[in-house]
């Protein structure tokens, strides 16, 4: 009897040990964060700071104990700003790498190429791109960090209206971001009592927009000019605008909200306005601003780690990662449906970009007021509103 009892106890101990080892092994398994970003190529000004931010904060989170007691593992690919590449990499992240969530998509084109795969695989996806079409109409598994181009148009038009402008000239790029921004501006202009009396476009490879700007300048009644685009195009438009000595208020979109744009445009950018997240003016935020602490902390940590200036786009990656972490912690697991549900229920998350309040009918969670109106003064950003 004693021998049988001893064997039973040994068996129980062995089973308990095996279970403990299994639980321990599962607990140690990394939480896989997948990402595809435009780290090189024409949209590298987006993807480079995004990747730097993800790498920095994955490392920091792991040093602090990880998430749910598990380390984070970042698996990322460079899509070079190519939508076809983005789709291929999204498929690889889902099928081969078996990631738990995707935080990425620097551009609207890359994001939209991945959306069908994400929806089919039923995996949470937090995009870092801008166009409203990413989340409108709502897609069950797709969320996004940046304010939409529609919000940017609304904020710009609001500022124009309060300055007394009612007729504007619009110039925009024909790529996904510029085309969507143009469409949204035309759609909401009348709501602000503003008429678009000139409407010009330029292609992604165009190197001179003098003709389009001349057409706008020669249109009767134009009070101000808005350019909607990103990449090299807006800097060229800005330089052409200055060379033509156009004496009209000039606006850009949030697509160029970075110090890199100031480097490209140089003195020609003086006086222009745009909507942006507060990351570009952290020291200008008042003490009672709810975003002050997180914005200043991110800006300082990024500069200390990488020795370079922060950008709006890196801030998108910070918020994307932190929203993912918050949802995983709230779900208590990496169960994809549970994480998706928690993302949809995030309320009051104070990020670098804004204060997020997600909902079943709102997978962005921001308002136009999350944009600050900035103006270029003496080669730097100045807070207007």
From TrEMBL:
InterPro entries linked: BCAA_transport, Leu-bd, Leu_Ile_Val-bd, Peripla_BP_I
Family in the record: Belongs to the leucine-binding protein family.
All copies of domain Leucine-binding protein, residue ranges: 30-379
Alphabetic keyword roster: Amino-acid transport, Signal, Transport
PANTHER family to which the protein is assigned, alphabetical: BLR7848 PROTEIN, LEUCINE-SPECIFIC-BINDING PROTEIN
UniProt organism field: Marinobacter segnicrescens
Pfam families (UniProt xref): Peripla_BP_6
Signal peptide coordinates: 1-27
Protein name: Amino acid/amide ABC transporter substrate-binding protein, HAAT family
Claim: DNA-binding is one of the keywords in the record: no
BP term (GO), one: amino acid transport
């Amino acid at each position: 009897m004693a021998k049988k009892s001893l064997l039973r106890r040994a068996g129980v101990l062995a089973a308990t040990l095996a279970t403990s080892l299994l639980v321990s092994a599962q607990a140690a398994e990394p939480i896989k964060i997948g990402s595809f970003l435009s780290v090189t190529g024409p949209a590298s000004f987006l993807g480079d700071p995004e990747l730097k931010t993800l790498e920095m904060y994955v490392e920091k989170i792991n040093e602090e104990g990880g998430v749910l007691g598990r380390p984070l593992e970042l698996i990322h690919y460079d899509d070079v700003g190519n939508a076809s590449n983005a789709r291929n990499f999204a498929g690889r992240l889902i099928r081969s790498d078996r990631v738990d969530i995707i935080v990425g998509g620097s551009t609207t084109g890359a994001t939209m190429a991945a959306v069908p795969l994400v929806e089919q695989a039923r995996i949470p996806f937090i995009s870092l791109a801008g166009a409203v079409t990413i989340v409108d109409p709502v897609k069950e598994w797709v969320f996004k960090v940046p304010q939409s181009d529609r919000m940017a148009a609304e904020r710009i038009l609001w500022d124009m209206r309060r300055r007394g402008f009612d007729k504007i000239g619009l110039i925009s790029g024909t790529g996904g971001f510029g085309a969507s921004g143009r469409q949204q501006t035309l759609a909401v202009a009348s709501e602000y009592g503003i008429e678009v009396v000139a409407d010009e476009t330029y292609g992604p490879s165009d190197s001179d927009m003098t003709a389009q700007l001349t057409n706008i300048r020669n249109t009767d009644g134009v009070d101000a000019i808005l350019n909607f685009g990103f990449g090299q195009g807006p800097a060229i438009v800005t330089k052409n605008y200055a060379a033509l000595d156009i004496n009209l208020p000039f606006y850009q979109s949030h697509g160029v909200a970075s110090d890199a744009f100031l480097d490209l445009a140089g003195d020609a950018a003086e006086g222009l306005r745009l909507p942006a997240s507060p990351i570009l003016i952290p020291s200008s935020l008042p003490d009672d601003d709810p975003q002050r602490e997180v914005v200043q902390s991110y800006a300082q940590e990024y500069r200390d780690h990488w020795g370079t200036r922060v950008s709006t786009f890196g801030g998108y990656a910070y918020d994307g990662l932190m929203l993912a972490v918050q949802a995983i912690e709230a779900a208590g697991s990496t169960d994809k449906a549970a994480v998706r549900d928690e993302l949809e229920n995030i309320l009051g998350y104070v990020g670098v970009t804004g204060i997020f309040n997600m909902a079943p009918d709102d997978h962005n969670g921001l308002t136009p007021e999350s944009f600050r109106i900035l103006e270029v003064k003496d080669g730097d950003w100045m807070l207007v509103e």
